[in-house]
Amino acid sequence: MSLESKIPEGDIREKWDHHRFDLELVNPANKRKFEIIVVGSGLAGGSAAASLGELGYNVKCFCYQDSARRAHSIAAQGGINAAKNYQNDGDSIWRLFYDTVKGGDFRSREANVYRLAQVSVDIIDQCVAQGVPFAREYGGLLDNRSFGGAQVSRTFYARGQTGQQLQLGAYQALARQVQAGTVQMYPRTEMLDVVVVDGRTRGIVTRDMVSGEIRSWAADVVILATGGYSNVFYLSTNAKGCNATAIWRAHRRGAFFANPCFTQIHPTCIPQHGDYQSKLTLMSESLRNDGRIWVPEKGGDDRPPNDIPEEERDYYLERRYPAFGNLVPRDIASRAAKAVCDAGRGVGRSGYGVYLDFADAIQRLGRGAIEAKYGNLFEMYERITGEDPYEVPMRIYPAPHYTMGGLWVDYNLMSNLEGLFVIGEANFSDHGANRLGASALMQGLADGYFVVPYTVGDYLARHMKEPRVGTDHAQFAAVEREIADRTQRLLSIDGQRTVDSFHRELGKICETHCGMSRSEEGLRNAIAQIRDLRAAYWRGVRVPGSGDGLNQSLEKAGRVADYMELAELMCQDALDRDESCGTHFREEHQSKEGEALRRDDEYTYVAAWEWPGEGNEARLHKEQLEFENVPPSQRSYK
Amino acid sequence: MSKILAFYRSPVGKKAVMAATGFLLFGFVFVHMAGNLKLYQGAEAMNKYAEFLRDFGKPVLPREGVLWVARVALLAAAGLHILSAAQLTLLARRARPQDYERRARIKATYASRTMRWGGVIVLAFILYHLAHFTFGPAWAHPDFVHGDVYHNVVAGFSVWWVAAFYVVAQVLLGLHLYHGLWSMFQSLGWYVADDPNDWRRRFAQVFAVVIAVVNISFPVAVLTGIVGG
Amino acid sequence: MKLTLHVWRQPDTETAGAFETYRVDAEPEMSFLEMLDVVNERLIEEGGEPIAFEHDCREGICGSCGVMINGKAHGPEAATATCQLHMRKFEDGDEIRVEPWRSRAFPVLKDLVVDRSPFDRIIQSGGFISVNTGSAPEANEIPIDKASADRAMDAAACIGCGACVAQCPNGAAQLFTAAKVAHLAALPQGQVERYRRVRHMVEEMERHFGYCTNFRECEGVCPKEIPVEVIARMNRDYLKAKLLDG
Ligand SMILES: Cc1cc2nc3c(=O)[nH]c(=O)nc-3n(C[C@H](O)[C@H](O)[C@H](O)COP(=O)(O)OP(=O)(O)OC[C@H]3O[C@@H](n4cnc5c(N)ncnc54)[C@H](O)[C@@H]3O)c2cc1C
Ligand code: HEM
Ligand code: HEM
Ligand code: SF4
Ligand code: F3S
Ligand code: FES
């Protein structure tokens, strides 16, 4: 199978417009004859389902939560980028494009990124019209802030709840279509497999999470918008239910998985406080604007932070990166924190934490100013840790946060399986080896509102005349049977350990060997450990209850089983990519000062992995990347 | 008409009706209280006032004409008030067939929690009160004299347990109004942006306290001999 | 810290439930849900069925979580969803009673998990602004004064958790519904459909829930501190819609 990216010809600025003109259209009267399945109701899925419903298609939308509104997009805090240039500070579509390609460390597709920057402006219009209460200035116009080290202010925000408000906007648009009868919503319904017949996607099979019913759904197009897989690390900033099952099952049916090792670790999260910890909480990156990061000069110094004199503190970011200091990009800040902790100088009970100190800022600007800027974040910190950050420095540590990798898609956002589209965090397309702050929300909505509604129409128009396949096709029955068997297997192992205990162990392996820094030896080691763990899982997990009712242990068991397989591919990919780029840091490839070194000659490609069948080595396909508009350069923050 | 019925069919509509009728009842109680202050001016003033009420509107209308109009309006208001209260209470019961094993109280006040029982006791009071001072059957008021309102009141309150019942009823009425008057604004959607609670709360507090205190003062004044002594 | 839990267990909607007692050794740094995780791990290891409870983000924003803790929705800490509640708010030796939200509109599905789908139906009935993708005007063409924008945001912060219904002695969904009505009514974009919207939403709400007698319990447990002022706003719009516009 070959990888055809289907990037249109011509000047990058005109590709999307020309392409849209070239796309075939479906006659309005014919639209309601088509069945479209959207799995996921987050920013990507919600916006796609609503837009397709508006166009008149018959849409079915699925999510695992009890309401479409609760998709994990709701948790995003910081904001959403758009090249509106409202602040007149020199922003433009080109600059957003440029920053995103560079930020992705030259491992993304230029054409996709340009289109993303282009439609970013429409997203803001759409959301404002829906009633999203973005922050405003006294003059009544939209406010912006600079985010994640960008040199222009292009981030739109709604207090610290931007994701929530965008998500509710999409959810309400979706609700409107449900009322109009164009979309049918199926919450508490988990997709467990796709049905592929002769290379073409024909539908999905789901489990009703309340009744346990396994059911087939046929469709002309299936769109996966199921989010990222950071929970492979067990502890991450993602919601507990976030899972890779949908994309992993599609992968096993033939969809290529691209760049699985590109996972982002966010530097400012609240550190782990115990073994029972269930998730990590992100603290907005904006805190680094005023907080100073440090650890004690000497390891094992367990004096309270305020008793450690200035001379015995190491402000390691300011020391190593005098130009950017505490504001270096996410990946660099994260790795530096790990380095000092690995050297035994970390703080807090676990030794995995660094101080984020506001004492200087409070002295300089006054407590009131700090409170006005970060009051709600400080409150959240205190609620979780019981410590008052006005009095003692915060403790932070990096945590897995976002996955740039995902199912491979072409320019139309269709995977290599015909009729299977993948959008939002679930695909790999726009962020390369590192995502910039406030760009994921943008991508989810770009895909859902402004890209996939067109490209799906084109696909349908081209295949209109072909015979359809219904749920009476034998393949549906076969997939249902496989799922029933797997469920039965999980329930009948009746071993000694809980699903969570396996998941924690898997997370530990991934974090240690495939987290912020990776090495050949570590990765080989990890692959071996994961294989053992997987075998132990299928021998020794205990899943109580039965398959025909609400059974949260069973839900988790299926997800963790898939994470085990994905973890192995992630390590495999990290091993294959023998360079450092973006968040992927291979210890073998660093400068004398410990900075990441890319190897453009050999690795300027997308690694798209093909499922080889149980027990075989995954097969690698390469999509070469061309950089015609932004010439690759080495990042420097000294 | 159908519009109004449709409106009443909705619980929010019922609640608005309850608020509007509650407001009417409140208006009556307030004016009634103010009128009763004549008690402190002695028998003549009081009885003249009662007579005035009966003659009000003459000669255009027959004697007690206006009074009857007012009575019908009050009766209708009371009827609607009670009807909507009863219907809504049933709705609430249905909305939570099973209650919690334990329930904390957060912002609900004693007043808001006693609206229903308080209302019923106030109703019982009103019925008794009508018998006591308006119709005067022997079981309610052995010493009743038609037309001599002053005498009826003084004689009535001289019985300590009657006076005590009045006092209790006024406390409950005060509580009912303490929540009810604030609630009325809320139900009718009256608020001032950015200062939503203050004036509504204060209005309710002031009138609830004034009505309870002044009304309680009557039986107390009779018992202590300040009036009629 | 040693705690005694009394947790409502109910296998499914049809079967009657009952309280079960569990003892747990918790740490003050744990979140309430992590404490339940620990109970569940032990239950599974001992061959029992874990307690089903709803949760997802564990950051207080998705609105999935929510149980009655000693008779208070989301537990003792003000303005805090269950997932953000930490055990340091309890004392060694405490007895904690954990119950599901109770309301006719929210039937129990299992243990502490309830069905809140009537909330979705309220939004579907009109909790949106009708604007098709691509038909929006340029964003800065509609200036909105900061005060209105802030008021809209205050109301829009609702996470749809259902604590208001759970705590309301009348089982009313006024706070949830009014928060959405007030959010959209505060913005110029929301004016066109303002009265139609409130009519449909209130009527849908009334199909499922009890009615409001202004107890204000909802406001007291709302993790986003939505004020009951929004209910007055909704009532006003609804009365106008019904009496003036017909
Ligand atoms: C704490 C946090 C803060 C963030 N802050 C920002 C920020 O400030 N700016 C920014 O741009 N980005 C931010 N991000 C990233 C961004 O929020 C996400 O990348 C983005 O929201 C993903 O959207 P999505 O629609 O692809 O997926 P999601 O919103 O995760 O939606 C996934 C959907 O798929 C459904 N689903 C999943 N699996 C299945 C299945 N098997 N069956 C059925 N349904 C399924 C779910 O129910 C859900 O509806 C943040 C992320 C986190 C975790
Ligand atoms: C003179 C007598 C009364 C007055 C002045 C009065 C006044 C009020 C007012 C102003 C309200 C508030 C309406 C609102 O919430 O919007 C109210 C509510 C209520 N009243 Fe009365 N009322 C009186 C008598 C009664 C009686 C006799 C009953 C009993 C059956 C009663 C029962 C109620 C109930 C149950 C409520 C509802 C509380 C609520 O919905 O918040 N009231 N009343
Ligand atoms: C302690 C306080 C009160 C006193 C001293 C008092 C006194 C009286 C008197 C003397 C009458 C007879 C008037 C007449 O026949 O002309 C009367 C009538 C009446 N009172 Fe009161 N009253 C008091 C409180 C209340 C309250 C709290 C209510 C209602 C909640 C109430 C409702 C009525 C009604 C409905 C009538 C009949 C009016 C009519 O139609 O003639 N009273 N009251
Ligand atoms: S109003 Fe408050 S309590 Fe009610 S659903 Fe919204 S956030 Fe929860
Ligand atoms: S508690 Fe209930 S009665 Fe009204 S003010 Fe809140 S909904
Ligand atoms: S789990 Fe999301 S709000 Fe509590």
Architecture overview:
The complex is a heterotrimer of chains A (638), B (229) and C (246). Chain A is α+β, with helices and mostly antiparallel strands and 638 residues long. Helix content of chain A is 37%, strand content 14%. In chain A, strand 7 and strand 8 (214-218) form a beta hairpin. In chain A, helix 3 (43-55) packs parallel to helix 12 (440-463). The model of chain A has no long low-confidence stretch (mean pLDDT 95). With 229 residues, chain B is an all-alpha fold. In chain B, helix 2 packs across helix 9. The longest helix of chain B has 31 residues, at 65-95. Chain C has helices at 32-45, 117-124, 146-156, 163-167, 174-185, 194-208, 217-221, 229-243, and strands at 2-9, 18-25, 68-69, 72-73, 95-99, 108-110, 113-114. In chain C, a hairpin with an 8-residue loop joins strand 1 and strand 2 (18-25). By secondary structure, chain C is α+β, with helices and mostly antiparallel strands. Chain C is 35% helix and 12% strand. The chains are: A alpha+beta (638), B mainly alpha (229), C alpha+beta (246). The interface between A and C is large, with 82 and 77 residues. One protoporphyrin IX containing FE binds at residues 29, 32, 36, 50, 71, 126, 129-130, 133-134, 149, 153, 166, 173, 215, 218-219 of chain B.
